[in-house]
Specification:
mainly alpha, two-stranded antiparallel sheet, 3 helices, 2 strands
């Protein structure tokens, strides 16, 4: 019974910690190996609890722990490997081809076109990421 309770606490605690860390004003990055390993350990503990449970009265706790840990690990794996994947994006630029014309504001806010500099001098574009 102790293994089953430990498995439940570990799996539910992992999910709760994940949600708390992501809900902060500045989210703390959580490596997937950390939460997937914790959930896998919870599942192993739940399997051990099922194998060690002998009486019918306590067997339901072990099966509940196993079910919860399998569902949590499955959802976390799906989230990590399917939902959170960054899709491969094709580049809009081809090496050796001229860049498409565009207009952007300069540091003073005045519009500047790339075509105004074409053939005159090299152009360096700097993109600031911002504070997000």
């Amino acid at each position: 019974m102790i293994l089953a309770i430990l498995a439940l606490v570990l799996s539910l605690g992992t999910v709760a910690a994940f949600m708390v860390l992501l809900s902060r004003p500045i989210p703390i990055p959580i490596p997937p190996a950390a939460y997937l390993t914790a959930l896998a350990v919870a599942m192993v503990l739940a399997i051990a609890a099922v194998l060690r449970s002998r009486g019918r009265s306590r067997r339901w706790i072990a099966f509940t722990a196993l079910g919860v840990s399998v569902v949590m690990l499955g959802f976390a794996s799906y989230f990590n490997f399917v939902v959170a994947r960054v899709p491969a994006a094709r580049s809009a630029f081809v090496v050796g081809q001229p860049a498409p014309d565009f207009t952007l504001p300069d540091a003073a806010g005045r519009p500047v076109r790339l075509a105004d500099f074409r053939g005159q001098k090299p152009v360096v574009l700097v993109f600031y990421r911002g504070y997000w």
